[in-house]
């Protein structure tokens, strides 16, 4: 398998042939006036980027690469706007060097060199950021930019079967991590959509949300301890199931997005591999009733693993299910006990709230994978193909992107209406046709994490700017209703304007002070969360 | 009811008469050589404290008190060493003034005055600290000390029934808070042992653990948003069920113990009042087997509300149950569904691990309180009387105190052995007789939170120093096994030496930088978590 230089995942897995034809036909049916001409990415070799401005010292030279492919693939994340800019050959901002440390000491050595030389360092895990988190944008004041690729820190170092925990290096990708834990019957059970191409360190640095909807899904809650290399020393927290000793040190680094230090390893809480599973999908005629059922289940203490409400547009587009009120995809899993009883109760709640008896309930007792049927199964397959299909459509002038948030239940109805209005308003201003879908990725007792999909027929060569206008409009809608600018996509460079309004002002000052204490030369991922240092001000 | 000036709770609830006689008889049976002469607290009026060194400005004078009773009762928490020092009339360090703001603006006004005048400010909720958290110790470099009593901020301001959340002022005591929520059918369901006399703000500032053993018990997880008055502005976080936007602002203030700002209110996540309950107690012949059963249940995903393992000494002393391996007190509760099935499964796990069929299972379906029977009920009543009995015994030269921690399951056996050895070693050095008991207050999938009780026959007039030696020995034992110095008692002034070793050094510097950013005059609770500012260094 070869990684695509310009888009998601593996070249071999790209959407082609009949899948592409079917996808194109579906979009054409929805948006008959769309120009769906397929554009090709330029050849990598045809790209022109500036020569590296910095060279590594001899002691680090063996870790550094200035190959074009390395530099280009490390200059972007995997957002729609990243993919399209690649398709258009717009690759101006790339790191001068990609450096691949093989040990914690080498991470420290790279930071020491860069701090002394005024070189910005962008920690790089799997490079799946969708918020400009790894892009060296606006760093002209630095002597150069190093992309610090943690990919060689790729091992499970220790497993504690009794406490169900493992010490795992930060550069490990999802599949390798799970493969290493499988012989112990254990799983981290953290499956973000980027799972195949993202790393533990990236999940920790960006507060990844995981796939499951309730308890033990957010990566924050799966951390026992962390090791973080900062420019002013290594931070190592104690391995603890819980603690009340001052503010949590780990919570300072969780979500710090590479601005305070480089996470090198963590003790992570694991789970036994599930044996019992039950899945079902419930159709609703009325979306408000579906939201209500979802809320009651979220507040029930049943702790479903899936409780994913697809609104009618999402159900139609991604689960091929036509409803007037949406589909609630329910799942329960356990390694300890059958889960038919909580599923029965959840379905009873749905019934009480006007949901229709499910088309099929799948209940399994096995150590293998559950069979996924009905809307749940359809939606799940679609979930894994989404990024590939996104790329295919992006090359056909479609604007295909997502954004996500979280809010309390009392505000959700207003939030969704405001967001849909804002998006449609942006479509109108741009003179384009678009659809916005909504699903819940996570549900909390006090509110959902809504995830929106945008599908619009754009104009080739202008879809990045068109998306940016839509994104600004919906971000304003989120801000105006008091929702968060991100539940699990992180802040990066793209969310900064709204993040800055969201965070309390005293916290912003505290974060800045922390930055200066840990990274006095302000070399770590400048521009993310915190402004780059003014020219020459903080750097040694 | 009148609050005791020297000890726990209400004067009218003190241990007297037949309860005292029975308690004394039990202790005498265990420790026949103990001198159990009961000593009396001196009269409040007989105490001599220095005159206040500072006077409030006219604009704040109506909020300030310099009454002896106010000053003395605000100079101490409720630890054993606090109570004994009071009994001995050792009340040297008391605040100069007690100030009771009635609004957020008045909190800000007090901070402004104190920052300008170099006066230390100690935020005071219910004053139940057991770690010297509210004691003005070692603050001679400040112009004076103000105890900032938040007790007048005592209302529930808003309830959002849909999201099950409420905006609650920080000075609200547990019973008033629950009384205000009861008409809505809601509960915060946070019941620390100090519940009756501690406040929401105190729980937040000290990361209180709550009464329940799994999910939604630690106060950290119950917070939607907070308002905090810092000397450099108000920090107000957005009300969110979850967020991935940078490091969590709330987590910076949770556990900050009054050093970074004064929490004035918070939106808190609530729960429906439970209807179904099941409780049972399982006896074990072998303690290791009991620990194993507890671990398996903690890792089962059954989410018991109680899963409290009492070791044989704890079971004997506090639940009047003689066993060779301890008692596991199990409980399940739900507002949504019957809980017999998870209880059945938990008991099956206990059976598989060598536990004996429970003496009685109590299963109730009601909107009222469950009937508590068996060892569970005995232990629960005892739990609520413990602080009063502690005071009675403290006045009879007994050393009666607790300490607590958390560790991963793989280390627990070694931890307990090391702690018991250290305590017995300290008893031997001191030439006294003592017993150490252990129970779990919380269990996580990756480890328990063990809570130890110390009962030793001390020497009147020296029990504080004797306890301090025991405490130092057991704290070293915790540190040497990599456990935390506190799971939910906070750091305060008493845990500083071990906290300083526990926290990562870069985090200590970050915290110091944050302190300077938010509290540039270093007036807030100096000495807690962070050293007081050197004379004149940071203060304006």
TrEMBL record, chains A, B:
Keywords, ordered alphabetically: FAD, Flavoprotein
Sequence positions that bind substrate: 390
Lineage: Bacteria, Bacillati, Actinomycetota, Actinomycetes, Mycobacteriales
UniProt protein name: FAD-binding protein
GO MF terms, alphabetically ordered: alkylglycerone-phosphate synthase activity; FAD binding
Cofactor: FAD
Family: Belongs to the FAD-binding oxidoreductase/transferase type 4 family.
InterPro entries assigned: Alkyl-DHAP_Synthase, FAD-bd_oxidored_4_C, FAD-bd_PCMH, FAD-bd_PCMH-like_sf, FAD-bd_PCMH_sub2, FAD-linked_Oxase-like_C, Oxid_FAD_bind_N
Site feature (Important for enzyme activity) residues: 308
Domain FAD-binding PCMH-type: 91-273
Domain of life: Bacteria
GO biological process, one term: lipid biosynthetic process
Pfam families in UniProt: FAD-oxidase_C (PF02913), FAD_binding_4 (PF01565)
Active-site residues, as the UniProt record annotates them: 451 (proton donor/acceptor)
Binding annotation for FAD: 123-129, 257-263
